[in-house]
Amino acid sequence: MLLKGSCHCQAVTFSVKSHHPYPFNRCYCSICRKTAGGGGYAINLGADSSTLRVSGEEHITIYRAVIDGEESTGERHFCQHCASALWVYDPEWPELIHPFASALDTPLPSPPKKTHMMLGSKAEWVEVNAPIQDKCFYAYPDESLAEWHQRLGLEK
Q: Is 0.85 surpassed by the pTM of this model?
């Protein structure tokens, strides 16, 4: 599925192909919550990094979080003008890119189930709305974005 996205001020637009376009994985870690999660969490999708096409790349800035005193290899791309979170790229997994669902302009399919991860670091004010069919994890989930899509037969 071709995903198209942009920042709020339209200085940056992008497209990327994804076989895993369901926005099911809610991350409550402090990094996602503080950089992209107005509701207390952020949602990243999985996509093929080799298909990323960007217009307005000169308006992008990158943030690398510090985790336990070490700078993360994960590169969080933002618009330097409006601060919209666009995607995460990590050179440790060069074939992947993780666009933020909030930056996408393409209508996304509604997930039949959700995963709530990193609940051990969620803010106290955040209420987790997790119906019985959803999976919840204190830290990382037991399956990847691709494995979740495969298990449910939802690859595009």
A: yes
